[in-house]
Amino acid sequence: MNTIGLDIGTTSICGVRINAESGKSEKTVSAKNDFWIDGAPFERLQDAEKIFDTVLSLANELKDENTAAIGITGQMHGIVYLDKSLRAVSPLFTWQDGRGNLPYKNGTYASFLNSFTGYGNVTHFYNETNKIIPENAVLYCTIHDYAAARLAGRKSPVMHVSDASSLGGFDIKNNKFAVENPFLPETTDTAEKLGEWHGIPVYTAIGDNQASFIGSGCNDGCVLVNIGTGSQVSFSVNEPITADGLETRPLSDGKFIAVGSSLCGGRAYAVLEGFFEKVLKMCGVSQEPLYEKMADEIGETYKTGISFDTRLCGTRKMPEIRGSIKNISTENFTPRDMILGCMHGIANELYCLYKSGGTNCTKLIASGNGIRKNRHLQNITENTFGMKLHIPSLCEEAAAGAAIFAMTGCGIYKNLETAERIIQYDLR
Question: What is the DSSP letter of 309?
Answer without folding.
Answer: E
